[in-house]
Amino acid sequence: MKKLFLTFCILILAGSAFAKKADITLSGSKHYKPQNQKILIKAWSQSLKAGGPKKRYYPETSNPTLDGSTLYVGTHGSRFYAVNARNGQVIWKYDNDEPISSTARLSAGRVYFTDLGGRVIALNQSDGTLVWKQDLSREMLGQPWVMGERLYVLKGEQTVVALSTASGGIVWEKFIRTYLRDMTMRGHSAIQGDGG
Prior knowledge:
With 196 residues, the protein is mainly beta.
């Protein structure tokens, strides 16, 4: 037992001598220089019209979409906004009939989004004027996807719809049987594509 204790003490002394020689600093005693600290500073804030009391249980689901120095975002207060990302000033706003649920998709000078009333809306990106509106009569929460001259949306839980970006007319609809106990397409996921 004495030999074990003596060996242990020698290892401790040798370790402390090595630590002094190598100038090791324990993490608990390390001091950080002020320039290593990162601090977030609020650049601006802008209040946008949120949903009314009847919609408080349902959170805002539309994420902002950034294009250059402009943010595009819709709210449950039935308004869609273009906001200057540098100073927070509202560039334009579009008053919709229903709460806006999806994140916008930007393509070729247009802004595309859906609302809780089942409509797909296309606006001019420059001034927010209405280009077209297509009523699909089903809830759409996911971000639309654009490829070429087609806009694709998930209608309800089981249908993918292709629309013309020029007119909003329905090009095709595809019903996808998704009733599986452990899976559903319902939600805020965006449609994605790869090539054709």
